[in-house]
Amino acid sequence: MADRQLIGRIAIAGIVVAALATCVVLLNGGEEPPAETVAVVGAPAEAAPSRGPDRTITRTLSQAQPVSNDWRIAYELAGAGTATVVYDSNGLGLVHQELQVTLPWRKELTWKNTGTPPTVQLMGQGEGAVECRVAVGGAVVTSEKSAPGEVATCAGRLAPS
């Protein structure tokens, strides 16, 4: 029985010694001993090149504006007096009507580009001759001039972008 107690005590003592050794290593952080100092004998063969003054380079970067691929539609009706105007307000064929508008008349719209070119429609009837024009992105895509009292109609499907 005494042998078993002795073996148990030796095992506990070994565990304590191992734990203390681990604590010492952890507390030292595993640092390596300091490096030895080396003395340089003699002067360098060439002098180091002298350095010029520091330069600061400033550059302004401009951010490019995102390019919109939406359709920019401009409806125009020219003539004298007033007119009744009917136009496609969203590129889906749904028309909007305005009565007794003063000429010249202009309406600018932006339609989302859905991938399918929309159909543009503009009709105007005035007291005298009227001229309708439809422009997409500033380029006229269709125009028509009417005789007095007749309807000028500008309609068509836009070309794919």
Structure overview:
Helix content is 17%, strand content 37%. The protein has one helix at residues 2-28; strands spanning 71-79, 82-88, 95-102, 105-111, 119-126, 130-136, 139-145, 151-157. The chain has a four-stranded antiparallel β-sheet with strand order 4-1-6-7, with no helix packed on it. It has a four-stranded antiparallel β-sheet with strand order 3-2-5-8, with no helix packed on it. The model has no long low-confidence stretch (mean pLDDT 76).
Give the gist of this structure:
With 161 residues, this protein is α+β, with helices and mostly antiparallel strands. 17% of the residues lie in helices and 37% in strands.
Descriptors for this entry?
elongated, 4-stranded antiparallel β-sheet, 8 strands, alpha+beta
What is the approximate shape? elongated
Please report the number of helical segments. Answer: 1
User: How much β-strand is present in the residues?
Assistant: 35-45%
Largest sheet: 4 strands, antiparallel
Secondary-structure-based class equals: alpha+beta
**Strand line-up of the largest beta sheet:** 4-1-6-7
- The helix-strand sequence is HEEEEEEEE
Number of strands: 8
Mean pLDDT: 76
Distance between the termini: 98 Å
* Poorly predicted tracts of residues: none
* Quaternary organization: single chain
**What proportion of the residues is helical, as a percent range?**
10-25%
